[in-house]
Amino acid sequence: MLAVNGVFKTFNRGTVNEKTALHNVNLHLKEGDFVTLIGGNGAGKSTLLNCIAGLHEVDSGSILIDGKDVTKLPEHKRAGILGRVFQDPMEGTAANMWLEENMALAFRRGQRRTLKWGISGKERELYRTLLSRLELGLENRLNVKVGMLSGGQRQAVTLLMAILKRPKLLLLDEHTAALDPKTAAKVLALTEKFIGQEKLTTLMVIHNMRDAIRFGNRLIMMHEGRILLDIEGEAPSKSSPLRTCYSVSGRPAEPNLPMTASFCLEFFSRKTAGLFPSGGAGQKDDNQGKGKYCLPLPACAAMFHQSDCDKAAPAGG
Amino acid sequence: MLQILLAAVMLGLLWAVMTIGVYLTFRILGMADLTVEGTIAMGAAIAARAIIGGINPYAATLLAILGGMAAGLVTGLLHTKLKIPALLSGILTMIALYSINLRILGKAILSLLRLETVYTVFGGLSQIPFFADAGIGHLVPVIALGLLCVPAIICILYWFFRTEIGCAIRATGDNPQMSRAQGINTGNMIMLGLVISNGLVALSGALIAQQQSFADIQMGIGSIVIGLASVIIGEVLFGKNSFFSRLVSLVLGAITYRVIIAFVLELGMPANDLKLFTAITVALALSLPELKSYLRPVVTGLKGGAKNARGKWSL
User: How far apart are CA A271 and CA A248, in angstroms?
Assistant: First the structure.
């Protein structure tokens, strides 16, 4: 479905601010894959999504979506096969246009726009039905300017717009990061519902480690422009990410995931030392792994931070 | 008095066409397009030159529109293809148009006296005793054409901006990032918006030149400010709820601006100070939201209640 082959991307090349955002990134998604993508700030997650969406031109390498080479296509020409939701709720909708007009814009994604009416009566019914699925009471507010809606509502609408025309690939760029915890959970639940119902191939950047483990069938971790970790498997149960890792480590290593098993162990044993008290085995592996896998550890540190915050929040409150 | 008022309405109707053009770029696309300073004179120049050359005045006006559209396209190309900032693209085209307009005109001023214009068809109206006796006979044909032309333009634009392409242009001005994500070629939409806008401005220039019976190389100077003043006056005084009422408010704004100008001139302000007056008006109008927040505590204090103050200052 998606093939990212040897993609390099450097910003501000030749200046003091030169920053390698993507370094030889290879990523292949199968039809129906729901991938969560994690990594610290500056890891290259958003850059990767933006390169797939066409915001940035890649320096080298190629990007294929559904077998079609889109490497050189401008952003608006790729839009027909992509659904996107951005981090900033303000970014995904046109604030001064009506809700139904926003939906109508999304409904015509990838089509040639003509001098026909921008929205038809039949569509309105469709939008009403779809908006009622959000359970936010928006189905009766078609003629409200989107700018009047709350951030959470706008994000839910953006999500609906992204899947209105079934995309070949859904790109979610930390789309719950700017929302309060309750709204974020609601939008995430909607996301999961829609992806499940429509069986959408999805690449979701997420900051929260727990959600990254909870959602999807595959987890990818990036650090300094490289993919460090790529775990595949059914969505693990919430309570025991550690066990999941062991089960992964028990599997024969796949050729394209060279350090998955052992790195994963180290990653989680360190991370969960405090979070999951029963980490005896993990500790042992950790000691064995020390030194050998020191390279990825700073990356983990970035991840721990977020999880620690998660842990601290309920305790503090 | 009636004469002054009607003369202001007449000018307002002609400038309303230009105001609508300025509105398209300023409010819908969210950019200040200075091309219009050159385009309005270009519309006048093309129409005048063509009429003197013996072309039917309606065809001449159409040529003027096409000329304006071409100017808009140049600005659009500079901005979207060559990535020159919008303001600078407009300035570049405007400066270039000055030379081009001089070439079209051949000299600084071209007279259209005693030539057939678009208003000649309505000449019969000025002979009607009712108008002739009131001393407004010469104004009536222009107002008649304006009353035909301006509503037609409003209806066409109202329809256009509800179509798929029109919606795409509005979305581009509103949120370009989102528009691209929805598959809209934002560069093309900006160009299309500039083309339509400058076509309207050139039409306005052509109509004005035929009304005043001459085309002047200088007539564009300050026109963007007049356009902005009209847009803002319209918004402040006549509301901005629906798109249709916004379009109507632009026309009313343009007329109000002319009435204000006629009024201050009547009060004895030297005509040379007009541009200064306009600039100050626009500066005040643009800073209104900021001024309101400064003044609110004062007003609240004076009124002794926030309820009244709010009603008063929300205009």
Answer: 17
For residue range B219-243, what is the model confidence (pLDDT) as tens digits?
999 899 999 999 988 988 887 678 8
Please name the residues between 251 and 270 in chain A that touch chain B, using a CB distance below 8 Å: none
- Say what the pLDDT of residue A234 is: 53
Which two tokens mark A304? 């721990």
Q: Looking at this predicted complex, what is its ipTM? A: 0.85
pLDDT digits (tens, 9 = 90+) for A99-124: 999 999 999 998 899 999 988 889 99
Which of B164, B169, B240 is most worth mutating to test chain A (most A CB atoms within 10 A of its CB)? B164
CA A44 – CA A21 distance, rounded (Å):
5
Most confident stretch, A103-117, B69-83, B219-233, B281-295: B69-83
First to last CA, chain A: 44
**Rounded distance between C-alpha atoms, residue A152 and residue A186, angstroms:** 9
Per-domain boundaries in chain A: 2-214, 236-316
**β A202-205/A34-38 pair status:** parallel
Q: How far apart are CA B176 and CA A91, in angstroms?
A: 9
Chain B residues with CB inside 8 Å of A86's CB?
177, 181
Q: What span, in angstroms and rounded, lies between the C-alpha atoms of A160 and B139? A: 56
Q: Which secondary structure element, helix H or strand E, spans residue A102, and what is its range?
A: helix A99-107
Inter-chain touch B175–A84, beta carbons under 8 Å: no
Beta strands A169-173; A82-85: pairing state: parallel
Q: Does domain A2-214 have CATH number 3.40.50.300?
A: yes
Q: Do B186 and A76 touch (CB under 8 A)?
A: yes
Nearest residue to A229 via CA among A283, A265, A280: A265
Chain A residues within 8 A of B163 when measuring between CB atoms: 114-118
Q: What phi and psi, each to the nearest 5 degrees, are found at residue B197?
A: -60, -50
Alpha carbon distance A225, A203 (integer Å)? 16
SS (H, E, C) A248-270: HHHCCCCCCCCCHHHHHHHHHHH
Element of type H or E holding A170: strand A169-173
Taking an 8 Å cut-off on Cβ atoms, the answer to whether A79 and B183 are in contact is yes
CATH numbers and ranges of domains, chain B? 2-268 (1.10.3470)
